[in-house]
Amino acid sequence: MPKLLISLDFDGPIAPIVDDPRDSRPVEGAIQVMQSLLDAGAQVAIVTGRDVQSVVEFGGLGDVRGLVISGLYGAQLLRDGELIADDQVAGIAELRRRLPEALDTVDKGLWVEDKGLSLVVHSRRTAQPAQTLVELRPKLDELADEFDLEVHSGKCILELRAPGYDKASVLDLLLKDYSPRGVLFAGDDVGDVPAFQALRTWSQRHTEARAIGVAVGEVSQVRELSDMHVDHAQELFKELAALL
Fold first, then answer.
1. What 8-state DSSP symbol labels residue 218?
2. What whole-number distance in Å separates Cα of residue 30 and Cα of residue 26?
3. DSSP per position, 102-134
4. Average per-residue pLDDT in the chain?
């Protein structure tokens, strides 16, 4: 266990996807399993696009001893009770002012989740979530270019954030910090693809170690890069509990 790194996305692998991110909660038993793995010597890290505060608050993870949380694709890091965060991203303040006008021209059901360092447009409340994002994408690409930001897609979302942040860079940092002999990464969406790719690259360089990518759910891009597939978070934590 002391040489094992377990890295998990929050939404999907730990907490089922819901319409409103504020309603998201870890599946039953998840917190206990993570704490048991930590107590046994494993390093457990959450790598998420959410901000750290929301993961701690909605996930009820503030009392999990030893847990590392990387939020906003690496812009925030909570470790040993200390939060390290980047400053406000240039362009986000003006984008925050301009974005509502762009959304109203597409669908009134769209809404924005403000993460401080990024803005996420959700389409789950619209009549045609996927098609609505297709129509909206050119407008967001234009705004992103204007403010030197990037647009990233996910399940019924488009996120505008600063370049240089992704889950691959976070996982690379964790791998460097802990030098594990075994690694498990679990993700469920296209935002996790860079981390799966980083894990594969690391595994090719460290043939003496064991690396397992776990796809949670049905996203084809994720499943193609994974070594193992589970249907939902409950099944993932059943497998993690078996490690104990």
1. S
2. 6
3. HHHTT-TT-EEEE-SSEEEEE-TTSSSHHHHHH
4. 92
Residue with tokens 């704490």: 35
* Model pLDDT for residues 56-111, shown as the tens digit of each residue: 998 889 889 999 999 999 989 999 889 998 766 778 888 999 998 888 877 778 99
**Angle between helix 167-178 and helix 193-205 axes, rounded to 10 deg:** 30
Percent of the chain whose predicted confidence (pLDDT) is above 90: 70
Of the candidates 119, 123, 89, 120, the residue with the CA atom closest to the CA atom of residue 106:
123
pLDDT of 12-23, one tens digit each?
999 998 888 888
Q: What sign results for the dihedral spanned by CA atoms 220, 141, 76, 32? A: negative
Would you give the DSSP letter of residue 166? -
The pTM of the full predicted model, rounded to 2 decimals, is 0.84
User: For residue 182, what is the enclosing H or E element?
Assistant: strand 182-187
**Which amino acid, residue 13?**
P
**73 and 178 fall within a common domain:** yes
Task: State what percent of residues in the chain have pLDDT above 70.
Answer: 99
Residues 142 and 169 in one domain: no
In angstroms, the Cα distances linking 123 to 62, 127, 128, 129, 215 are: 30, 9, 8, 5, 23
Give residue 21's domain range.
Answer: 4-86+165-242
- The CATH number for 224's domain is 3.40.50.1000
Judgement on whether residues 10 and 81 belong to the same structural domain of the protein: yes
Helix (H) or strand (E) holding 197: helix 193-205
When divided into structural domains, the chain yields a total of 2
Domain check: are 61 and 171 in the same one?
yes
